[in-house]
Amino acid sequence: MSDSQLWDDVDAYFTDHLAPDDEALRAALRENEAAGLPHIAVTAAQGKFLQLLAEVQGARHILEIGTLGGYSTIWMARALPEDGRLISLEYNARHAEVATRNIARAGLDRIAEVRVGPALESLPKLADENPAPFDLVFIDADKANNAHYVEWALRLTRTGSLIVLDNVVRGGRVLDAGSTEPDIVGTRAAIELIASHPRLSGTAIQTVGSKGYDGFAVARVLD
Ligand code: SAH
Ligand code: DHB
Ligand code: MG
Fold it and tell me: Name one GO molecular function term (predicted).
């Protein structure tokens, strides 16, 4: 058996037991597929992990950067109370439309909202609204801007908030210090920012699974 087949099978085992989907999550993936969106949503096991992080945070306000079809959005929004709020930023209008429908079908349209536009334009507008600090920020958009997104996350959070950065390993390409690929340059800049910032304490975890070999970074906002 190939490594990747084994990773798939183990993911399926854990997912069946610990992160079972339901009709709304299945429908979201079906609609993503039907609309031709790329297969880059988090896995169910990862979605459940984000949900658990939101619960541990006692989150009332969540910010997501990079919505795609709203699959990760649904997992996280389900951790929020009735009066909680999730704002998800998406550059691609078609992705945002699919996501908005998926979120509504999941019964979460009063909690989760998709805002269309490049995140680096949406973030200053959001900051101008003086929103309540976000308890959890999930960064999963264009990796080139990862360090900028971490900076924005710092401005929009509070002491004790959590910042999660997806796809920080990319099959090991993160190691390439000489890389000129924007996603690697951006991710390395974000890792170095987390490492050096006095108000962040973080780590990164490598993962394998049905989405291959990748990983995520988690950072806690300090005083
Ligand atoms: N979080 C989603 C996956 C996001 S995929 C999930 O797990 O279900 C990355 C998304 O980021 C894509 O939909 C892409 O269109 C969006 N994106 C890329 N560049 C962006 C930008 N500058 N601003 C906002 N969104 C962006
Ligand atoms: C890609 C983006 C993602 O957010 C992800 O989880 C996996 C892959 C990509 O752009 O290739
Ligand atoms: Mg991702």
Answer: S-adenosylmethionine-dependent methyltransferase activity
139-149 average pLDDT score? 98
Task: Considering the domain delimited by 3-105+122-221, tell me its CATH architecture.
Answer: 3-Layer(aba) Sandwich (3.40)
Atom of ligand 2 nearest to the CA of 211: 7
Q: Is the pLDDT of residue 1 over 90?
A: no
Q: What pLDDT was estimated at residue 137?
A: 99
Q: Domain boundaries in the chain?
A: 3-105+122-221
R_g (Cα) of the chain, nearest Å:
17
- Look at the pTM and tell me if it is higher than 0.90: yes
Which of 29, 40, 92, 174 should be mutated for ligand 2, with most atoms under 8 A from CB? 40
User: Across all residues in the chain, what is the average pLDDT?
Assistant: 98
Q: From the CA of 68, give the closest atom in ligand 2.
A: 4
